[in-house]
Each structure stands twice: as structure tokens, then as C-alpha cells.
Amino acid sequence: MTSQQSAPGAPVTGPACVVHHRGPSGGPRALLLHGLANGPSVWEPLAAAGAAGLDLWVADLPWGSAHPPDWAYQPDATRTVAEALKQVPGGAGVVVAHSFSAVLLMELLSDELARGGDPFGCYGIDALVFASPFYRRSPETFEYGIVGELLDNFRHTMDEGIRVMAGPRLDASLRHDMAQRVCERVGPYGYMSFFRSYLRTPWLRTDLFTVPALVIGGEQDFIAPPDEGLALTADLPDARCRFVPGAGHFPMVEQADAFAAALGEFLGSISRTAPAALDQALDHQGA
Q1: If 0-12 CB within 10 Å is exposed, 13-18 middle and 19+ buried, where does residue 11 land?
Q2: CB under 8 Å, gap of 24 or more: what pairs does 135-143 form?
Q3: Span 70-123, pLDDT tens digits
Q4: Residue of 78, 84, 65, 61 whose CA lies nearest to 15
Q5: What is the pTM assigned to this prediction?
Q6: Residue 277's pLDDT band (boundaries 50, 70, 90)?
Q7: CA-to-CA distance for 275 and 287, rounded, in angstroms?
Q8: How far is Cα 192 from Cα 137, in angstroms, rounded to an integer?
Q9: Are 178 and 239 in contact (CB under 8 A)?
Q10: Which residue, among 286, 226, 255, 268, has the nearest Cα to 48 in the 3D structure?
Q11: pLDDT in tens, 154-183
């Protein structure tokens, strides 16, 4: 029996996140945070597409598919996001967070801002990119029936993730079985960690976010619907919204070139008002 199992109710540390330097490019730094039951490889198509010239740092987070589910035994997964942000030398720069990690990032920033802190200065965040985020303005929109609906969508999310990463050659029945096994591996604690964070989104202090943001998703995303991305964009002080045609919940995989182009347009739109470090990096990139 492990020490985690031998002391019910005791705090669980869980596996730490590890941030890897994907490779220098001379452009602005960017930290990439994958979603639930994905992994660092989900960003490979974006890196191959040039990632808008960004200097990529990729986090391997405890809720990735390669890790056990005990990360969810701890009460607050946002602490792991904070740990990832701190691991990027010189500051996180542009933080690109997908799906579940986008919600956790918003939660972390909101909580620290509500306490009077400055998370953007603390972590060196120059800009935010929320990819396929979950977000609702009102608690009344979470009706009872959504419990079963979201649980069913969760399995479909795992299925879609496997499909876009493995390609069309993978047999559909095998893919469905694999998705079911991923759901079982995530388990009730992992799913409930996502659900609790999603339920908190109506109380996020997005109005206090002081850095530019891009909300980006797929036009065909049935998991995190475009309407939620539009609502989030409207509730951020300085945000742009972009939906990628022909993409679902994983636009950075399905349409990596379009995703990279949207990132580039976003960086270009904020370059005149960017902090000095980002502005200098953009100038260097264009030189």
C-alpha cells in the first residue's frame, strides 16, 4: 500500500509537472499547457507549423494520459499550473492553455487577483491564449440534466482526441474502446476535478485580467461550444476571438497552420502595446 493510500484524508502531493524547452526560435517565449488526458505531444503539429515563431516551453502536466490519476486526489489543481508558470526562465510570456488547463489557468489568475495579488507580474505573463475553453456566465445554466450530458461528452472528448492524434487509419471500434479505457483511467476524481472547475466559471474575475487575450476554438467543437468562447471574450477587458473552420475541440492538431496563423495575427495585434520584453522579442523576430 502506498503512503497516499495509507493515510485517508491527508494531503496528496501527486506527481509534479515538468516543463521542457521545445526549442529556441528567437521569438517571444510561450508556455503550452495541455488538457485533461492529453499530453505534450498534442502540441507537436503546432510546433511543426512554426507556432508563429514562438520560443516554445511545453508542460507535461499530471493530468496527462501518461500519468496515474492520483493528481486529482489533491483539492486544488491550480497549484500545478502555478508550478508550471514558475518553471519558465524569465517569465512565462504568452501562455497557451487548452481545454481543462484553460479553466484552471483562469481559476488561478482569478483567485490571486481577488486576493489583491498580481499574477501577471509574478509569473511574467504577457498575454493569454485560451484554446477551446469551458466558460459559463451564470450558475443557472448548469441544469441537472447537464450532469449526464457532460459525462457522455467527456467520453466523446477522449474519442475525438484519439482520433485526431492517431488519424483515420485507426479502427473506429478500437478507438472507442481506447477512449473508454482513458475515461476509466481518468476516473471519477479526475472527472470531478474538471466538473468542479467548470462549475466555478460564473464567479471567475475575468474583468480583472489586465493582459491581452486570444480565445480560439474550432467552429465544429461540440464539447466546448463556440458560444462559451464568445461569452468569455466579451467578459475579458482586452480579448479577441477566433474560430478555426474545419476544427473541433483540438484546433491546434486538426488545423495547425490556421491555429499558428491566428497566433501570429494575435501577437501582431498586440505588439504596439505589449510589455517591453515581448515587444523586443517581436522586433527581433521581424529583423
Answers
A1: exposed
A2: 135/103, 135/106, 135/201, 135/204, 135/228, 135/229, 135/231, 135/232, 135/235, 136/198, 136/201, 136/202, 136/228, 136/231, 137/201, 137/202, 137/231, 137/235, 138/202, 139/199, 139/202, 142/199
A3: 999 988 899 999 999 999 999 999 999 999 999 999 999 999 999 999 999 999
A4: 61
A5: 0.88
A6: very low
A7: 18
A8: 20
A9: no
A10: 255
A11: 888 888 888 888 777 788 888 888 888 888
> Cα dihedral angle (250, 255, 258, 263), rounded to 10 degrees?
30
* Terminal-residue alpha carbon distance, the chain: 58
Task: Sort 216 into a burial class: Cβ within 10 Å, 0-12 / 13-18 / 19+.
Answer: buried
Single out the residue of 227, 239, 243, 36 nearest to residue 137, CA to CA.
227
Give the torsion through C-alpha atoms of 82, 52, 221, 185, to 10 deg: -40
Over the stretch 2-37, which tens digit does the pLDDT of each residue have?
A: 333 433 333 434 458 999 999 776 789 999 999 999
Residue 149: half-sphere exposure toward Cβ, Cα within 13 Å: 8
CA contacts within 13 A on the Cβ side of 284 = 15
Show Cβ contacts of residue 151 under 8 Å, excluding neighbours closer than 6 positions. Answer: 191
- Residues contacting 72, CB < 8 A, separation 6+: 14, 63, 187, 189, 190, 192, 193
How far apart, in whole angstroms, are the C-alpha atoms of residue 143 and residue 112?
29
Q: What is the DSSP string of 73-118?
A: GSS-THHHHHHHHHTSTT--EEEEEETHHHHHHHHHHHHHHHTT--
